[in-house]
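Morning. Coffee machine broken again, so started the prediction first thing and wrote up yesterday's gels while waiting. Chain of 68 residues, entered below exactly as on the submission form.
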Amino acid sequence: MCINTCLAYTGPFAPFEKCPTCGKDRYESCKSSHNKKVLRCMFTTIPIGPQIQALWQHSKSAKRMHYH
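Came back before lunch.
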């Protein structure tokens, strides 16, 4: 993820070293002792689909989802 949250480096943006929007580097300027690149920012996502499926499996939570 861009340090300014402009975009996530996935799909067509995966090979980019800099953000095309703000120009910030994807990796830290210093490298670790194993010569690996260190990410500046990382974001974890939780897909919504499996969460909704899990809610529909129980009758109580399915009824609560029909509240509005």
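The mean pLDDT is 83. Going to sketch it on the whiteboard this afternoon.
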